[in-house]
Design brief:
Elements: H1 2-7, H2 10-25, E1 34-39, H3 43-58, E2 62-63, E3 72-77, H4 82-101, E4 106-111, H5 117-126, E5 132-134, H6 142-150, E6 156-157, E7 179-183, E8 185-186, H7 197-201, E9 205-206, H8 209-221, E10 226-230, H9 247-255, E11 262-266, H10 275-283, E12 290-292, H11 300-305, H12 312-325, E13 330-337, H13 344-357, E14 361-366, H14 384-407, E15 413-421, E16 429-433, E17 438-441, E18 451-459, E19 463-468
Parallel strand pairs: 1-2, 1-3, 3-4, 4-5, 5-6, 7-10, 10-11, 12-13, 13-14, 17-19
Antiparallel strand pairs: 8-9, 15-16, 15-18, 16-17, 18-19
Helix pairs in contact: 2-6, 9-10, 10-12, 13-14
Length: about 475
């Protein structure tokens, strides 16, 4: 444990060790201090929560799945949509009764939601049982804030620093022993008019390529089989890293590591998706033949209002080159329905884009105004009934396309990384292909974490079904 602490930022490691010592002094009856983490939001939030769990265990806490049994509750929040924030606040409200029964409980709220000043103020004034808040860029400062509170200090509500650190060597408690998230950069410089992320996660800053390679190499040595590189816009990788290494160069460098594993990454911004990137995907066997490339809208007028810096023609040309280089590539996307000013003609352009591009899958969202973003103040906000109707039409069309694409795989044998027993499928196993297709099949649970070859016997909209080929 002391070796891990010595690798951390000095103040963070010192605070973590002091918390551990303090807890030990309070456990005269030998009782354990427990922590509970609740996560909302994207893969980056999941990766952050694994670091928070690592810090909690470094400080001497042990994990519990029950918030009522915890001495430390950490809520990692999302701010992308209003619904997510409301759900988060509702959950935090439920912890009031736990605090009443256990006054020594510390409740910490972190993540994107508390990167907004109005939410920090709300938590401070309306949720007096919340002890600490801190934004994503201050995650490594958590031990110091917790130490101060445990010593009787005042409640603390930290804002995002102007220049957040890129903290290395933060311990990670990974939820899986064979799938791993690896953050390569943080923040965003794009300022899409609907998006709150640049305001709550700060400007782009990248990790050093040597540090990333060391982490990935260590994961492969430990037996990890699926590694996903994370960033708000991975194609911008390099800023602030002290290196001239581009993201495609980083991909090739990581793909050269010996071992049986697959590299995924997300998210790519279309304006920065270059032929160099596509060539790296095509050339390197260990890079998954799958690309998530958010379109958001098929209307050039709406794309301009969104400040996306590309038009559909440019987007289509990049996909044409991608499919020329990798004919069997899987392409997924994000689509926003009901952006301010979206006309029926604009929405029809999005439907036509889906028909032309034929995504394997999309992640579709109804536009949600975010306070502080330009789009929230735009005229011609779309009524909810119109947004809901368009959303249903979009989903219906994509479901048809997804089913057709999946049926083309019937009879094919696919390499699948097994995730163990599938929920709600009668004891069948579940896994994913490198193209991120979910496959259900019969087998022994001991196959979890291993690659298996599965012949597809039946396809549905969201899942493939098959049998193991030995």
């Amino acid at each position: 444990m002391s070796e891990i602490i010595s690798m951390l930022n000095a103040s963070t490691g010192s605070a973590a060790e002091k918390v551990r010592t303090l807890l030990r002094s309070r456990s005269g009856d030998g009782r354990l201090f427990r922590y509970y983490v609740r996560t909302f939001g994207c893969q980056q939030n999941e990766a952050d929560s694994e670091k928070l769990a690592g810090l909690a265990e470094l400080m001497g806490y042990v994990k519990t799945e029950e918030p009522g049994a915890a001495d430390l509750i950490i809520v990692n929040t999302c701010a992308v949509r209003e619904h997510a924030e409301r759900k988060t606040l509702s959950i935090i409200g439920q912890y009031k009764h736990i605090k009443e029964n256990n006054p020594s409980l510390v409740i910490a709220v972190c993540g994107c939601m508390v990167g907004q000043e109005h939410r920090r103020t709300e938590l401070k004034m309306r949720y007096p049982y919340v002890d600490i808040t801190f934004p994503p860029g201050s995650l490594h400062l958590f031990p110091g804030m917790l130490l101060d509170r445990l010593r009787g200090g005042k409640r603390s509500f930290a804002a995002e620093p102007e220049q957040p650190d890129v903290a290395e060597d933060v311990p990670v408690r990974r939820e899986s022993s064979y799938r791993a998230w690896v953050s390569v950069m943080y923040g965003c410089n794009n300022f899409c008019t609907y998006c709150i992320v640049p305001y709550v996660r700060g400007r782009e800053r990248s990790r050093r390529p040597d540090d990333i390679e060391a982490e990935v190499r260590g994961l492969v040595t430990e037996g990890y089989r699926d590694i996903t590189l994370l960033g708000q816009n991975v194609n911008s990788y390099g800023r602030g890293s002290g290196s001239d290494c581009t993201f495609p160069q980083l991909l090739r460098r990581l793909a050269s590591i010996e071992g049986d594993f697959v590299l995924h990454f997300m998210t790519s911004h279309p304006k920065d998706a270059t032929r160099e990137l596509i060539d790296a995907i095509a050339d390197e066997k260990k890079i998954a033949k799958q690309l998530h490339l958010p379109l958001q809208s098929g209307s050039d007028r709406i794309l301009k209002l969104m400040n996306r810096h590309y038009n559909f023609g440019e987007y289509r040309d990049k996909l044409a080159y991608l499919r020329e280089r990798i004919p069997d590539v899987s392409v997924t996307s994000d689509i926003i329905v009901g952006f301010p000013g979206e006309t029926e003609e604009d929405f029809e352009a999005t439907l036509e884009a889906l028909r032309e591009v034929r995504y394997d899958r999309i992640f579709s969202f109804i536009y949600s105004p975010r306070s502080g973003t330009p789009a929230a103040n735009m005229k011609d906000q779309i009524p909810d009934n119109v947004k809901n109707s368009r959303f249903e039409r979009l989903v219906a069309l994509q479901n048809e396309i997804s089913l057709e694409k999946n049926r083309q795989l019937e009879g094919e044998t696919l390499r699948v990384l097994c995730d163990g027993v599938s929920k709600g499928n009668g004891g069948m196993l579940e896994g994913r292909t490198e193209q991120d297709k979910i496959v259900i099949f019969a087998g022994d649970p001991s196959l979890s974490g291993h690659f298996v070859n599965v012949r597809v016997t039946r396809a549905e909209t969201f899942n493939l079904y098959g049998e193991i080929i030995k």
